[in-house]
Structure formats: C-alpha cells, structure tokens
Amino acid sequence: MENQSQVTEFIFLGLTQNPAAQKILFIAFLLLYLATLMGNLFIVVTIISSPSLFASPMYFFLAFLSFLDACFSSAIVPKVIEGSFNEKKVISFEGCMIQVFAIHFFGGAEMIVLTVMAYDRYVAICKPLHYVTIMSRQLCFLLAGLAWAGGFLHSMIQMSFILTLPFCGPNVINHFLCDLNPLLELACTDTHDLGFMVITNSGFICILIFSLLLVSYGVILYTLRTYSTEARRKALSTCSSHITVVFMLFVPCIFEYARPPTTFSFDKMVEIFYTIFTPFLNPFIYTFRNLEVKNAMRQLCFNKIFLIKK
User: Fold this and answer.
1) 9 pairs with which residues across the strands?
2) CATH of 9-309 among 3.30.70.120, 1.20.1070.10, 1.10.300.10, 1.10.3720.10
3) What digits encode the pLDDT tens for the residues 245-275?
4) What is residue 89's three-state secondary structure?
5) Residue 65 to residues 42, 191, 271, 278, 294: CA-CA distances in angstroms?
6) Chain-wide mean pLDDT for the chain?
C-alpha cells in the first residue's frame, strides 16, 4: 500500500458542514446506533436462551442475521458519530481499507443469510413433510459457514480492486464512509475497467440474488393457495417480514453498485437508509409480527427480573 499510494489519510465531507445540524445528527445517530445494537443483540440473546427457538432453523438464522446487522452497523455508524461530533472528519488510509472490507464482508454474508432464510421458508411451506430431514442441524451450521466464507470471498475480491489503486491526492471524500465508488473517483489512474469489475462483482450479484429471492417467494406465495386460512395467515406474516427486509437491503445496493462508478447528490441518503436505518428497523420488522419471539423476550425479561429480586 505504501508503494502504491502517497495518501496517508482521507477526509470526509460528511452530511453537512453546519455546526448546529452536526449536533443534531450526532444525537440522532448515537441514539439509532445504541437502539440498533440493543435491539439486534437482544434478539440474539433471546433466541440463544430459548432452546425451542434456537432449535428451529428459521430462528437460528434470524439470530445470525441480527448478529450480522449489529456488526454491519458497528463498521459504519461509530465513525459517522465521530464525524458528526468533530469539525474535521478524518480516517487513516488503513482505517478506510478496513471499513471497505468490513462493509462488504458483513453485507455479503447478510445477503447469503437472507437467501438461506428464503430457502428455509421454501422447504417449510413447499416440502413440509421433508423439512426436518432437509433442514438438519448440520446443514444449518454448514450454511452459516458458507455465509461467512461467501462474505469473506466477496470482500477480498473488492479489496483486490482497491489496494491496487494509487492515491496521490486529493484525499477528500464527498461522503460519510469509505466505499468503492467514492474511492475510485480519487484514484490517480483510469478506473473504467475496475468500475466494470465492481459492477460485475457487486451489482450483478445483487441483481441475481434479488431475482432468485423474488422467484422463490413467488413460488412460496403460489403454494400457499392450497393452505388453510390460519396456516396461510401465519406463513404470510413470516414471509412478508422477510420480503420487506430483502427489499430494504437489495434495492439500495442495486442502485449503488449496478451502475457506473459515479456519485450523485442523493447517494448519501440512499446509503444512510440501508447502512443505518435498515439494521435499526430489522428487529422491529421481525419481532413485532412474531408472537413466539415476543413471548420468548417476555420470558427472558421475567427470568432476569426474578433472579435480581431473588
């Protein structure tokens, strides 16, 4: 990296240069981040503490998704909070590379987990008699390992693009985080071919997975026509939560990566939505419509209060 680049740090322009607005953003992002961590980690603890939920593949992957949301948010939001508090928003060259790696590592793993969750619902609804046999504990751990490996591979491919770029100045990023498109614009070389590779590795993969998910949920919804009203209602409640999260993650990602590496004025708003608000909203989307998780949360809180009083 030292041979390729003379830049030792990058400066973010952030969301605003207005001091009063920065204070408001600092408080807002701090509260959102704390709520995101508490909400997602509470789901993880609840599911792990409940033997019946943890034994279910659906809730096993829900806990995994919540853990990834907490990690994904932690790779981005603390630096945004720091930037909202400080007048000069600086990140070291190494810190910037680590942030790019973390964003695509956890983001890639989360996309695979959402795909696995769709497959789990497909087996449960379309092949109910074979569900226990197919979605065995061994397969669940194997798929979880596949998510980690897939996220790592995706992120390493992205890093292989970025680490070969020379950065000789300027070093001002018109954004609040380090990502592929803003960095490609700062590189002191022609990045046309690399931009195409980014579209192929990120944009095309997002479109492909998103299309497969839409087809799978279409098959699920078609199969539900033969179910009873009560069974259909319960299945639709679960599937609608999954579909909502899929749209919240994939649509902004497709917008960001399935186009030439240029930046637009509203890119920041799009990235705020899927990097900050989506991890914050996911616990509410899943738990508020899931009676089993809410009951397990109440039981966990009751047990903790009982132990404290005792």
Assistant:
1) 92
2) 1.20.1070.10
3) 899 989 988 888 887 766 667 788 888 888 8
4) strand
5) 12, 34, 19, 12, 17
6) 86
